């Protein structure tokens, strides 16, 4: 019988395994390097996240000022600001051939055109600027070996999504130069394409925000994690995911409201032009497209989703406010109903005052902030796990 003792595998020198020790040292060294760069990389990602947020807000401003169709061409390298009267005249003459000018803005002066041109021009250059900052930052991270391979692959996906988003933006604008195929025949971009463009931006924003939090807040809370807290976090995490999905759906329905200019069709509250349910919602013959194209139905759907999101935030808070969670999670839970309350108030005011530009922009921005608060709560809950 062999005497008990360390096995040959356990006592085998590291040197007998080619490069074994070096490999482990290199891995540890790479991990340490990534940790050294954690804060700069996280802040860069957070800056890109904020840039996407600013672009969403500016995009809303561009839409509300009816500036989105002012530029009739798209160039990969971008269009320089017109530097002469001849250049301005060329741009303006091209705009005069569009349905929007012929049907809505006929007789517009060059001075008025310059104003709407600025919003669209700035929106496009904000996108290109973000692309340059993201590509340059990614290249710097790779050169400094400041990120591990999985994060590098995710950055490549984010960059690809950003590039596609630029193409989707032009695809959306082009629809405004064509005969409308929706119920409303006023010259405007396709509400489907606008909603797709906005949701792609929201998706990219959400991914970048989650990644920023993952880099900046990688460790679990310092407080001891009990089994009860971990179990409660698992349940709350599922419900936070459901709430985020609901908030995202409400945001999508808001994009359809914007695309159909539905915010200006029923400007009373709590009823809609003195009706709790507009006739257009149940009018016959039934057509599923009314839920995406009919202004009254689209606004009605958005109101219902907004009420549901508002109530769900309070339900989530009251269900979990007394659970044994660390302070940051309890704060995030309290913050959620505050965000939905503010968003609901902004929505009501926007409708009552016939969608003024300032309120419309604030309402869109607050919608994204509400989604952000849900993402933040989800991230905190995902970190609350027992160590095995």
Automatic annotation (TrEMBL):
<protein>
    <submittedName>
        <fullName>Cytochrome c oxidase assembly protein COX15</fullName>
    </submittedName>
</protein>
<dbReference type="InterPro" id="IPR023754">
    <property type="entry name" value="HemeA_Synthase_type2"/>
</dbReference>
<dbReference type="GO" id="GO:0120547">
    <property type="term" value="F:heme A synthase activity"/>
</dbReference>
<feature type="transmembrane region" description="Helical">
    <location>
        <begin position="194"/>
        <end position="213"/>
    </location>
</feature>
<dbReference type="GO" id="GO:0046872">
    <property type="term" value="F:metal ion binding"/>
</dbReference>
<keyword id="KW-1133">Transmembrane helix</keyword>
<dbReference type="Pfam" id="PF02628">
    <property type="entry name" value="COX15-CtaA"/>
</dbReference>
<dbReference type="InterPro" id="IPR003780">
    <property type="entry name" value="COX15/CtaA_fam"/>
</dbReference>
<dbReference type="GO" id="GO:0005743">
    <property type="term" value="C:mitochondrial inner membrane"/>
</dbReference>
<feature type="transmembrane region" description="Helical">
    <location>
        <begin position="332"/>
        <end position="355"/>
    </location>
</feature>
<feature type="transmembrane region" description="Helical">
    <location>
        <begin position="125"/>
        <end position="147"/>
    </location>
</feature>
<keyword id="KW-0479">Metal-binding</keyword>
<keyword id="KW-0812">Transmembrane</keyword>
<dbReference type="GO" id="GO:0006784">
    <property type="term" value="P:heme A biosynthetic process"/>
</dbReference>
<comment type="pathway">
    <text>Porphyrin-containing compound metabolism; heme A biosynthesis; heme A from heme O: step 1/1.</text>
</comment>
<dbReference type="GO" id="GO:0016653">
    <property type="term" value="F:oxidoreductase activity, acting on NAD(P)H, heme protein as acceptor"/>
</dbReference>
<keyword id="KW-0472">Membrane</keyword>
<keyword id="KW-0408">Iron</keyword>
<keyword id="KW-0350">Heme biosynthesis</keyword>
<feature type="transmembrane region" description="Helical">
    <location>
        <begin position="41"/>
        <end position="61"/>
    </location>
</feature>
<keyword id="KW-0560">Oxidoreductase</keyword>
<feature type="transmembrane region" description="Helical">
    <location>
        <begin position="153"/>
        <end position="173"/>
    </location>
</feature>
<feature type="transmembrane region" description="Helical">
    <location>
        <begin position="361"/>
        <end position="381"/>
    </location>
</feature>
């Amino acid at each position: 019988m062999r005497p008990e003792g360390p096995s040959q595998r356990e006592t085998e020198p590291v040197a007998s395994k080619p490069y074994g020790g070096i490999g482990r040292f290199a891995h540890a060294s790479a991990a340490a390097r990534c940790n050294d760069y954690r804060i700069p990389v996280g802040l860069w990602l957070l800056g890109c996240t904020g840039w996407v947020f600013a672009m969403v807000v500016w995009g809303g401003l561009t839409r509300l000022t009816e500036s989105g169709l002012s530029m009739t061409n798209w160039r990969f390298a971008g269009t320089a600001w017109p530097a002469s009267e001849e250049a301005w005249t060329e741009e303006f003459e091209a705009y005069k051939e569009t349905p929007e000018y012929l049907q809505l803005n006929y007789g517009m002066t060059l001075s008025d055109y310059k104003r709407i041109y600025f919003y669209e021009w700035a929106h496009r250059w904000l996108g290109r600027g973000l692309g340059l900052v993201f590509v340059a930052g990614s290249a710097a991270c790779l050169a400094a070996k400041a990120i591990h391979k999985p994060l590098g692959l995710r950055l490549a996906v984010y960059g690809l999504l950003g590039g596609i988003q630029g193409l989707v933006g032009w695809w959306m604008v082009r629809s405004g130069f064509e005969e409308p195929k929706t119920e409303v025949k006023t010259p405007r971009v396709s509400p489907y394409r606008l909603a797709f463009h906005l949701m792609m931006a929201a998706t990219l924003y959400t991914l970048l925000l989650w990644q920023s939090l993952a880099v900046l807040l990688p460790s679990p809370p310092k407080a001891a994690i009990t089994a009860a807290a971990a179990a409660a976090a698992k349940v709350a995490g599922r419900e936070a995911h459901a709430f985020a999905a609901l908030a995202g759906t409400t945001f999508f329905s808001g994009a359809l409201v914007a695309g159909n200019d539905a915010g200006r069709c029923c400007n009373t509250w709590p009823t809609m032009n003195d009706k709790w349910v507009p006739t257009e919602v149940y009018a016959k013959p039934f057509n599923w497209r009314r839920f995406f194209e009919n202004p009254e139905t689209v606004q009605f759907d958005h109101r219902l989703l907004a009420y549901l999101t508002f109530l769900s935030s309070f339900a989530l808070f009251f269900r979990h406010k007394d659970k044994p969670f660390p302070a940051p999670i309890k704060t995030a839970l309290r913050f959620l109903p505050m965000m939905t309350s503010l968003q609901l108030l902004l929505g009501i005011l926007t409708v009552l005052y016939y969608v003024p530009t300032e309120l419309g922009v604030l309402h869109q921005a607050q919608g994204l902030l509400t989604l952000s608060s849900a993402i933040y709560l989800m991230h905190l809950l995902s970190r609350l796990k027992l160590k095995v």
